[in-house]
Amino acid sequence: MTARLDFNQADFEPQFAALLDSKRESDQDVADIVASILARVRNEGDAALLDLTAQFDHFQQDNVAALAISKAEMQSALDELDPTLRAALVTACDRIRAFHEKQVPDGFGGLDDDGVALAMRYTPVDAAGLYVPGGKAAYPSSVLMNAIPAAVAGVERRVMVVPAPDGYVNPLVLAAAALADVTEVWRIGGAQAVAALAYGTQSIAPVDKIVGPGNAFVATAKRQVFGTVGIDSIAGPSEILVIADAQNDPEWIAADLLSQAEHDEAAQSIMITDDADFADAVDAAVAAMLPRLDRVAVASQSWADNGAIITVPDMAKMPELANRIAAEHLELALDDPEKWAGDIRHAGAIFLGRYTPEAIGDYVAGPNHVLPTARTAKFSSGLGVVDFMKRTTLVGCDAASFAKIAPAGVKLANAEGLGAHALSMTIRMTKPV
Amino acid sequence: MTARLDFNQADFEPQFAALLDSKRESDQDVADIVASILARVRNEGDAALLDLTAQFDHFQQDNVAALAISKAEMQSALDELDPTLRAALVTACDRIRAFHEKQVPDGFGGLDDDGVALAMRYTPVDAAGLYVPGGKAAYPSSVLMNAIPAAVAGVERRVMVVPAPDGYVNPLVLAAAALADVTEVWRIGGAQAVAALAYGTQSIAPVDKIVGPGNAFVATAKRQVFGTVGIDSIAGPSEILVIADAQNDPEWIAADLLSQAEHDEAAQSIMITDDADFADAVDAAVAAMLPRLDRVAVASQSWADNGAIITVPDMAKMPELANRIAAEHLELALDDPEKWAGDIRHAGAIFLGRYTPEAIGDYVAGPNHVLPTARTAKFSSGLGVVDFMKRTTLVGCDAASFAKIAPAGVKLANAEGLGAHALSMTIRMTKPV
């Protein structure tokens, strides 16, 4: 049984606040272990990487070059794929690339009224590292979602790392890497792979930004190297908020709730509806559907522990609750979804209407599936092209425009007690060339 | 004497690498103290805030409401300002606002060839906290640079915190807050102010993003609350890289180098020139100018410990070095600066030509002066309007467009072993309304 909350009940507010505050991540403290791994790779380079890979992945090689996967190997993984699966991957790749190409930002520039040249421009980072988890949880869709934005941004080196437990790498992951045009692949994982990307070794050149999901060791390593390199946000367990009126088929909505619940016991699926009978029907549909799932144990526990059905007296109460939830994924399964979307200020991604289940966005819709979790959609965004770029501002004065604006600058520099700042301006006014 | 490096010398590369790697920040370990302050404010709220403010700022009040500064007080600080100083502040404010208004991002949206509605939109965070250091180091220009982007982004609550040692707040800071349209001001500082902004107290509502410079306690507190709220980057000591040919007045360039050196003993000023005689002339000009500065002790130590003059055989060698330095501030004091700027991939802000000293950008040019330090311009950007906004993607399918793209999604979901993902799509194909 999942939690049921009713907006009209007197204790709704404390119950809803508790739902928002529920901590679903394990506080596995691996900081010390990770710090020592990072230090070893930073100090010993290749030798530490080989040693740690043998230790953690049971994959023993004599030199780091042997950990590389060539472009030819990636291409043959793609060539050997079942044709319909390959076609599906191509569809996903093309649609993701098309959506991300629309995100490439324009800079701007020109002279202002005082004759000062002002501009802002975007440039890509030189090199990006893409962490891909190993073994069974290796998702080709995640390779596409992380590698394509980097390629669209114009990042020259796009370096994938993937652990190879006992030497095994999922061929689907390699096929996706080939399609997404990854430029380097190394069979390394864990904190040691993050260290190699951040600091470089004799064989692996360092990168500027590291993205991609991983376990607690990987997430902690990313936190610890932040500052030396940039990182994406640290993703928590997946979440969905489905807004559904009584016009929906309860089974469709049940399947949507379960599509997040099956990810992880810590995942969270919430529905808000304005119809108590529909709430009952969805609850029943979930119960009936659960036993049919391969991942029944995971999905059942997620739904029981973290799921919730919230009834509101009318949909007008919904946006405020949805904004407080600030869901990673928000489905608006009701009439006029665009109108309702206008009332949503905080969500990672919004799925409009009854024919847009969240899973379509995990694979083929085009927008990124790397999205902010745990209420962080209030202040952060899904992965995008700009995450692989940075902005530089440019200012250019000539003698005339400088003379117009510098006096105000001198006044402020002196008010702040910064005499050399003032001097660097006055010297150009009192002693012109 | 500052360091001199010559590109033509055999030991240039290790010397340059050492310059890049030099660690200029003190590793003051305050993490445990900060963690206990954050926990106290989180658990005890207002009472802890009052207690810690009395303890650290020697400013004793009975309730948090008494720590607020009203809009009327801010306005009278502005009204009482010397008129020419007020005019300078207005010039700065207007120019900064104009530049940041150009940054407001457009979203996009429309139907693709398959009939799928796809969009990306930007929304502001609900509330932003702006940390302003107290006492003498309180810079009105920093208030403008942090508060204006938030206002332009459309952030509703723009909350300034500023410590008031013995009850004192610099009136220039309040005047700047009035001009920049800050909506709330609290006389609190240190880690306790960061905690109040992140977690909220009985009297102070929490914010979603915290920006602004501060000491080691503030920086550490920002790191620790990251995840609960967003933060800007943690700024290190200031840096300037001046590229100057022999056509410059050595005194102008000396003043520019010193304008960063005067900030902090840990600040770093570097010049690259293609003329050894000009290098000598600038070195001599710095030595002659130093005693004339109010902040002679700070600037002298910064220049001696962290400054450097690098000579290159010709300017064509410069861009590679400049890109490795990835300076916070880069001056291009040579002919055709726009051309050279095209070769620069990594810099926080670029100042074009001989009449654009960096200090003009600190106050009145318009671009932000909160910029990435310590080589982080390789992957991060100066503060901007988008730092107070987040992106949401939107997807909408109807039955027809869903039928076109869903089969590829189902194929991939099954390949990843995620049956409920697949089910949420197949159920809409096999059982249409």
From TrEMBL, chains A, B:
Keywords: Amino-acid biosynthesis, Histidine biosynthesis, Metal-binding, NAD, Oxidoreductase, Zinc. One of its GO terms (cellular component) is cytosol. It catalyses: L-histidinol + 2 NAD(+) + H2O = L-histidine + 2 NADH + 3 H(+). Substrate binds at S238, Q260, H263, H329, D362, E416, H421. The active site is at E328 (proton acceptor), H329 (proton acceptor). GO terms for molecular function: histidinol dehydrogenase activity; NAD binding; zinc ion binding. Its cofactor is Zn(2+). The keyword DNA-binding does not apply. Binds 1 zinc ion per subunit. Belongs to the histidinol dehydrogenase family. Catalyzes the sequential NAD-dependent oxidations of L-histidinol to L-histidinaldehyde and then to L-histidine. This is Histidinol dehydrogenase. It comes from Puniceispirillum marinum (strain IMCC1322). The lineage of its organism: Bacteria, Pseudomonadati, Pseudomonadota, Alphaproteobacteria, Candidatus Puniceispirillales. The gene is hisD.
